[in-house]
Design brief:
By secondary structure, the protein is mainly α. The protein is about 75% helix and about 0% strand. It contains 9 helices and no strands. The chain is globular, with a radius of gyration of 16 Å.
Length: about 220
């Protein structure tokens, strides 16, 4: 149970900090590049912070796509995977609720940092972006946390956080960057509108990307010695 609670706390922090920075800075991938960089850093730093906070308890997935990748590669059983995902979604809703309360009471701020298709991006384009960049991100997670990496696992949290920064810098222009269904579900529910209508993209895309990543990792994973 402690593992699931840790996942809820970690995901709450990720959503509150990452989406909170996006809202506070007015993240606009076309007209506000500094805000894009700030948002990317916020999500990456939140992951690094939580990796060294709850990593020893739950492994710090804080993302259903990562949990799916770990389950498909045999690193956890189905019961734990389900418990992790439930904890992550609950944590995301708590983080979004806190952010919603803040923005509702501050003039000039609105929204909860929900993902949505950006200007000129089609549904197919957004779906492909989420599949591709989730694939890259989850592959980094699987590799960085692999037992075959030995002592380098001490730096896994840093590698994962920096890769999330990189993914955001590229993908924000297309979808605002999800690569995490829990991060997308809760903000979309609070924000509504097109973010909620397009939510399926940010659930299906990351899960497909994670499944592909798990398949590729199984092919390239070195034999244990």
């Amino acid at each position: 149970m402690k593992k699931y609670l840790a996942e809820a706390v970690g995901t709450m922090v990720l959503v509150l900090m990452g989406c909170g920075v996006a809202v506070s800075l007015g993240c606009d991938p076309v007209n506000n590049i500094p805000a894009v960089v700030g948002t990317a850093l916020a999500f990456g730093l939140a992951v690094v912070a939580m990796a060294y906070t709850i990593g020893g308890i739950s492994g710090c997935h804080i993302n259903p796509a990562i949990t799916l990748g770990c389950w498909l590669t045999g690193r956890m059983d189905g019961k734990d995977a389900l418990g992790y995902v439930c904890g992550q979604v609950v944590g995301a809703f708590i983080g979004s609720a806190l952010l919603y309360c803040l923005t509702e009471n501050v003039a000039g701020l609105e929204g909860t940092g929900a993902n949505d298709l950006q200007a000129g991006v089609s549904m197919l384009g957004g779906l492909l972006a989420e599949i591709i960049f989730t694939f890259v991100f989850v592959l980094v997670v699987l590799g960085a946390t692999s037992k075959t990496n030995g002592a380098t696992n001490n730096f896994a949290g840093l590698a994962i956080g920096l890769s999330l920064v990189l993914v955001h810098l590229v993908c924000i222009r297309y979808t605002g960057t999800s690569v995490n269904p829990a991060r997308s579900i809760a903000p979309a529910v609070f924000q509504g509108g097109s973010a909620l209508a397009n939510l399926w993209i940010f659930i299906v895309g990351p899960l497909v990307g994670a499944a592909l990543s798990a398949g590729v990792w199984k092919m390239i994973h070195p034999d244990k010695k």
